[in-house]
Amino acid sequence: MAALITARRSSRLLGIHAGRALSQSALELDSSSYIPVVRRVVEEQHKEDAAAVVSTARSLQWVFLGCPGVGKGTYASRLATTLAVPHIAMGDLVRQELKQSTPLAREMSALMAQGKLLPDEIILAMLKNRFEQGALSNEAGFILDGFPRTTIQAKALDDIVEIDLVVNLKLREDVLVLKCLGRRICSHCGGTYNVAKIDVEQSEDSPRVFMPPLLPPPACAATLTVRTDDTEEVVRERLRIYAAESKPVEDYYRERNKLQDFDVCGGIPETWPRLLAALNVENKGMVP
Ligand SMILES: Nc1ncnc2c1ncn2[C@@H]1O[C@H](COP(=O)(O)OP(=O)(O)O)[C@@H](O)[C@H]1O
């Protein structure tokens, strides 16, 4: 897994795709909407020379795949802490961008509210910007979740960085819906909790799934929020889009011998040690 990635490489690639049309847009955005993101990308390009002198010994570069609600963010974040690499969550980068009151943010909010994917050009510009910031601050390695979600994005990612391993979290669909509907986020500390008590009987093709609620500490009880895209209708649309757009991404990595499937079938206390064992990662004291 040892290899070197230089900040120069990451910076150079930042520029290469800034104007490249990667795919169909889910919404026809007026080209002026791209300007804030593209301007930032171009500004970042000017940092290339400074970044070029920084050579960062890289650590692991992993991707987490999985349907909405499977726990990608939770497990990717725990693993990143355990392995001391940054966790890059595409959904968080998007939500960060949405806090700005720009026309682009409003258009992106409208798409997200319908459960749609955002245009590749915008998503990729945000990700490159994040990689660029990481390179400038000597970050080594990452665990990425929420990207790629299409094979076009997977190919674009291959142009930027070398992915070592793709962890594909799997969970039956009825449970995914329950988990999304039970998800709560503390607007104060940002912690993610789940109020759903899931106990789904074994069926012909799926094992029983038992997941107790993951309740917030009392201090967060009054500040819990529900993501606007966690309504049943929107969750089902996100699952439909996942099946159509993101399933092929699994095949993309399977064909390249990078995919490791992992069945989630319980709460964090059961799943976390199993995941560490499956990935051959030593637990450095994180309590399940
Ligand atoms: N790689 C991506 N490509 C396109 N849109 C994305 C991508 N990642 C995130 N998004 C947008 O952000 C939303 C929230 O993403 P995320 O928090 O990862 O949620 P989930 O995995 O539960 O759908 C997505 O529904 C989509 O609109």
Give me the Rg, rounded: 19 Å
> What is the percentage of strand-forming residues?
15-25%
Q: List the ligand species.
A: adenosine-5'-diphosphate
Poorly predicted runs: 1-43, 45-56
Q: Would you mind describing this structure in some detail?
A:
By secondary structure, this protein is α/β, with parallel strands linked by helices. It has one domain (4-23, 57-278): P-loop containing nucleotide triphosphate hydrolases (Rossmann fold, 3-Layer(aba) Sandwich). Helices cover 45% and strands 16% of the residues. The protein has helices at residues 7-16, 35-45, 48-52, 72-83, 90-98, 103-113, 120-136, 151-160, 173-182, 232-255, 268-278; strands at residues 4-6, 55-57, 61-66, 87-89, 142-145, 165-170, 183-186, 192-194, 198-200, 209-211, 224-225, 259-263. Strands 4-5-3-6-12 form a 5-stranded parallel beta sheet, with helices on both faces. Helix 1 (7-16) runs antiparallel to helix 2 (35-45). Adenosine-5'-diphosphate (ADP) binds next to helix 5 and helix 6.
List its salient traits.
Rossmann fold, 16% strand, binds adenosine-5'-diphosphate, 11 helices, Adenylat/UMP-CMP_kin, 5-stranded parallel beta sheet, 288 residues, single chain, 12 strands, 3-stranded antiparallel beta sheet, alpha/beta
Provide a brief overview of the structure.
The chain is α/β, with parallel strands linked by helices.
SSE inventory with pairings:
Blueprint: E1 4-6, H1 7-16, H2 35-45, H3 48-52, E2 55-57, E3 61-66, H4 72-83, E4 87-89, H5 90-98, H6 103-113, H7 120-136, E5 142-145, H8 151-160, E6 165-170, H9 173-182, E7 183-186, E8 192-194, E9 198-200, E10 209-211, E11 224-225, H10 232-255, E12 259-263, H11 268-278
Parallel strand pairs: 3-5, 3-6, 4-5, 6-12
Antiparallel strand pairs: 1-2, 7-8, 7-11, 9-10
Helix pairs in contact: 1-2, 1-7, 2-7, 9-10
Bound molecules: adenosine-5'-diphosphate.
